[in-house]
Amino acid sequence: xxxxxxxxxxxxxxxxxxxxxxxxxxxxxxxxxxxxxxxxxxxxxxxxxxxxxxxxxxxxxxxxxxxxxxxxxxxxxxxxxxxxxxxxxxxxxxxxxxxxxxxxxxxxxxxxxxxxxxxxxxxxxxxxxxxxxxxxxxxxxxxxxxxxxxxxxxxxxxxxxxxxxxxxxxxxxxxxxxxxxxxxxxxxxxxxxxxxxxxxxxxxxxxxxxxxx
Length: 213
Prior knowledge:
Layout: E1 2-6, E2 9-13, H1 15-22, E3 26-30, E4 35-36, H2 37-49, E5 53-58, E6 63-68, E7 71-77, E8 80-81, H3 82-85, E9 92-95, H4 100-105, H5 109-121, E10 125-128, H6 132-136, E11 145-146, H7 153-158, E12 162-163, E13 168-171, E14 174-177, H8 183-200, E15 211-212
Parallel strand pairs: 3-5, 3-9, 4-6, 5-8, 9-10, 10-14, 11-12
Antiparallel strand pairs: 1-2, 6-7, 13-14, 13-15
Helix pairs in contact: 2-8
């Protein structure tokens, strides 16, 4: 299930090995009102299945509503505010999309600073659909090859990114994907990259090269 090409060698991991590698690690999903429901629920479920402790982080405490189709979806509990999350040590960050959610987050300084903290620590960031909008505010997309919902192509090009139309793109621990339909591939690659980072984080020169799916 989990294959990773690394320095021209193939590392194959079974599901049990993936659980062994990722158990005890922590991931933050940054979201606010109006996130695309499937883009939070499915990655969260996939990561928890392999032993990752996943927390929903939001600018405000309480509950946030998802968006699904053309209507509001389910309501989810916020596990931790952004302010409190700064004091925690997370291994990974996930940025779900939705038209409303990232547009709000990119205008909240603390939310952008939280994303920036992962950039500064060179930790993996997985963003799907419109989720990359918040990354634009950090300047991290400049020079990176990535994908997103197609309507963001011009915004990303203007921010200095190299945008391509692929299911999933990996560039220097940045994992991006286009849309909810790509979630199965996104989740598989996200877990693969998180494992790769966790295994190699203490070794020199182990940043991922550009990979597309």
